[in-house]
Every structure is written in C-alpha cells, then in structure tokens.
Automatic annotation (TrEMBL):
This is Flagella basal body P-ring formation protein FlgA. Involved in the assembly process of the P-ring formation. It may associate with FlgF on the rod constituting a structure essential for the P-ring assembly or may act as a modulator protein for the P-ring assembly. Belongs to the FlgA family. One of its GO terms (biological process) is bacterial-type flagellum assembly. Pfam families: ChapFlgA (PF13144). One of its GO terms (cellular component) is periplasmic space. InterPro entries: Flagellar_FlgA, SAF, SAF_FlgA. Residues 20-78 form the SAF domain. It is found in: Periplasm. Keywords: Bacterial flagellum biogenesis, Cell projection, Cilium, Flagellum, Periplasm, Signal. Its main location: periplasm. It comes from the Bacteria. Residues 1-20 form the signal peptide.
Length: 145
C-alpha cells in the first residue's frame, strides 16, 4: 500500500512548473554597446519581464548600463540606433497623394521603429515621428497608421 504522504509528495513534484533560464550580463556593459554572445550568460530562474533566450538579445543595443549577473529586461535593450542626437535627418509626411520632405534635427538617439522627437529646421517646431529603416523620420500620415 502506498502511503498518502508519498502520493502527496509525488503530486507536488510533478505539479511544480519548471523554472526557465534568464539572460543576464556576463560582464558590465556600457549603454550603446551592441550585444554579442560573449556579453551574455544564462542564469537559473524565471524573472518576470526578463529575456529568456540569448537569440532575443544578440545584435541589439544596450540602452542602459547592464551589470554583471543581473537579468536583462526587454526595456534594457533595443534596436541599434541609426539616428544620433543632433543629427540632421529628413522628415517625411505622406498622406494620400501628398508627400512633403523637410530637414530636421534629431533631439534623441533612436533605432528603426522607435519614436523620436525632431525639430523642423524650417519652422523651429518640435514634432515626433517614427524612425524608418533608411534613417528618415515618418511624421503624421503613414506614421500614425
């Protein structure tokens, strides 16, 4: 006869979820560094909001300082910046058949798909737009869709 304590222990062990590994910095990494596989390590445990696969982090840029052994969250990294602060960029507005392009000055660093503030050099007004893969900034029209 199997004892109730043994059955309870077996059920508890099988019901316990397996812990996932979490990606952490293998060394201290400065902000604006592109992450390589040697920069990362796996640690035991599942940290909410942290990355669980090395493939999710390799090739992305550290947006903040990453400290040795600390889990890396999705907000700590992002696409590599293709627009630098104070860089002159092309602002594009497209809607229907209308297309307008003007020069602007980026007020922040940003990668493709990020929202960035830009000062229109003609009117001196500040607008926000989405960074396109070619480094231009899409404002209004298609950027809002």
């Amino acid at each position: 006869m199997i004892k109730p304590v043994l059955i309870t222990a077996c059920l508890w062990l099988t019901a316990t979820p397996a812990l996932a590994d979490t990606v952490a910095a293998a060394r201290t990494i400065r902000a604006q560094t592109i992450l390589a596989p040697t920069d990362l390590t796996m640690i035991a445990g599942d940290v909410p909001g942290a990355i669980n696969s090395l493939d999710e982090a390799v090739g992305l840029e550290a947006r903040v300082m990453l400290y040795t052994g600390r889990p890396i969250s999705t907000s700590d990294i992002g696409p590599a910046a293709i627009v630098e602060r104070n860089q002159i960029v092309v602002l594009r507005y497209s809607h229907g058949g209308l297309s307008i392009s003007v020069d602007g000055r980026a007020l922040d660093r940003a990668g493709a798909g990020d929202v960035v503030r830009v000062m229109n050099l003609s009117s001196k007004t500040t607008v926000s737009g989405v960074v396109a893969p070619d480094g231009s900034i899409q404002v209004g029209g298609l950027a809002a869709q």
